[in-house]
Design goal:
Length: 148
């Protein structure tokens, strides 16, 4: 009879949960990268706009450039808020990941301990059977010697 862990289903569920949280963590980290990329692009757009403005702009375009500059400034503030929220979300998911890893590790350790105990009991049982077999063989030999 081979070792069968009675909490194998729970272990599998914990493993699935851990995989889901890992995916969630990757998504949160990716979201931060996306927002940071948008911030960098926004800064580039602002720099290009400033460069165009420094070259000098005619009267009608001044209003358009001013509106664009105002839009980029507001966009920057919005993106900074998104980045703060994304980092907060990453921290929350990081905690979930740590908890899921701890639960998984606890069950894995428990399974290893149970398996070690099972193997120890199997060895003991095998040893007892060998001892009994040796005893039977010894008695048979003694009986043979007694009959001779």
């Amino acid at each position: 009879m081979s070792f069968k862990y009675r909490l194998e289903r729970v272990l599998n569920l914990r493993e699935q949960e851990l995989d889901k949280v890992k995916a969630k963590f990757q998504e949160a980290a990716s979201n931060i990268q996306k927002v940071q990329t948008k911030i960098q692009q926004n800064k580039l757009d602002q720099a290009h706009l400033q460069a165009d403005l420094s070259k000098g702009v005619s009267g009608a375009l001044v209003a358009i450039y001013a509106n664009r500059a105002n839009y980029l400034k507001n966009r920057h503030e919005t993106l900074e808020q998104e980045l703060i929220q994304a980092k907060e979300q990453l921290e929350i998911v990081k905690q979930e990941l740590l908890e899921a890893q701890q639960k998984m590790e606890a069950l894995t350790k428990h399974k290893k301990k149970q398996k070690a105990e099972y193997e120890k009991a199997e060895l003991k049982q095998e040893e007892n059977m060998l001892n009994e077999l040796a005893l039977i063989m010894r008695r048979m030999k003694e009986d043979e010697n007694a009959q001779e």
